[in-house]
Specification:
Elements: E1 3-7, H1 16-29, E2 37-42, H2 44-55, E3 63-67, E4 82-87, H3 88-98, H4 102-117, H5 126-146, H6 151-154
Parallel strand pairs: 1-2, 2-4
Antiparallel strand pairs: 3-4
Helix pairs in contact: 1-4, 1-5, 3-4, 4-5
Length: about 180
């Protein structure tokens, strides 16, 4: 069980099974196919509380990532080595601003969070930001090609079709782009 997803919010229904499959492929691309990662979807209020408690930032955010152990712990397979928390409310606002489907933004945040769990950190300077952006793009390309992702794979509305081009690419913008956080 490398990925465990849970939704602790009710406002936005999410296709957890399909998101789990995509997250497991992303995890494999990062070399962590044996690691157990927990991904929890929540609301703005809850992620703000966690952000304040653990980062001393009293504001909402889209994604938080935590690495608990450097590697899987023998005999404790059900203990995650990392956890990703995603505010679906914030993801929804960002998706709307970017004019992309919510599921695309959620996938971008999963990719971003997994990269952080595996040591990538765009806040450590341009070289690290470039390294993380490149990994996010690599993972996004693999997801799109391996899973032949379609919106109907992720959507409650089965008539929507393929994910629009360039909507799953990770969170870090190219240097010329700007993006709200």
């Amino acid at each position: 069980m490398p990925i465990e997803l849970a939704s602790r919010q009710r406002k936005f229904p999410l296709p957890l099974k399909e998101l789990s499959k995509a997250a497991e492929l992303a995890l494999k691309e990062l070399g962590g196919s044996r690691e157990f990662i927990s991904i929890v979807f929540m609301n703005d209020r809850t992620i703000r509380e966690v952000n304040k408690k653990f980062r001393n930032k009293d504001k909402t955010t889209d994604v938080l990532s935590f690495r608990y152990a450097p590697e899987p712990v023998p005999d404790l397979e059900d203990v995650p080595v990392g956890e990703i928390l995603i505010s679906v409310e914030t993801a929804s606002r960002q998706a709307e601003a970017l004019k992309i489907p919510l599921v695309s933004e959620v996938l971008n945040l999963i990719i971003h969070g997994l990269c952080h769990v595996f040591g990538y950190d765009h806040e450590k300077g341009k070289i690290e930001a470039d390294r993380m952006r490149n990994m996010e793009r690599h993972i996004a390309r693999r997801l799109l090609s391996e899973l032949e992702m379609t919106l109907d794979m992720f959507s409650l509305d089965q008539s929507v079709g393929r994910l629009p081009e360039n909507t799953v690419r990770g969170k870090i913008p190219d240097p010329k782009e700007t993006r709200e956080s």
